[in-house]
Structures are given as structure tokens and as C-alpha cells.
Amino acid sequence: MPQVIATPINGARVRKPDGQILKAEGEPVERDSFWLRRQNDGDVRLDHPSADTQPAGDDAANVTPIKPKK
Asked: Under 8 Å CB-to-CB from 60, ≥6 apart: which residues?
């Protein structure tokens, strides 16, 4: 799975699947159904990682753009 940066919105305290709280400045996470549900609920923003953390080679072709919620 590609990685994205999950950042809480409006100071939300968001639990990660392991029960820990997501850092306010955001953390890299796997783009999966758990984080997509958090995004759809309006609890987190999912952004692509910066260019220096992008996967190289074949993995780079598997990155799917994330459409913002309207």
C-alpha cells in the first residue's frame, strides 16, 4: 500500500489502529480503508509525502492521487 501523511483536522484527537493518538503535526501511514474512513469522517487530511520520501521505482507508479473532500 502507498504511504500518505495523515494530519488531524481542527485539533481532533484521532486514534491510530494500534490505539495510540495520531501526532498533531501528522504522521506517515499506509493509505488503507481505516484512514480513508477517517478522512471521509472529516477527522484527518491525507496528503502525499514530500518528494524525498516518495517511493522509487515500480512503487512510484502505484501511487494514486487523493481527491479532496468537497
From this structure: 54
- Spatial separation of the C-alpha atoms in residues 61 and 69, rounded to whole Å: 23
- At 21-69, the pLDDT tens digits run 999 999 999 999 999 999 999 999 999 987 655 555 555 556 666 766 6
> What is the reported pTM?
0.68
Is 41 inside a domain boundary?
yes
Q: Can you state the percent helix, strand and coil of the chain, rounding each to 5?
A: 20, 25, 55
CA distance 61 to 70: 26
| Total count of domains within the chain | 1
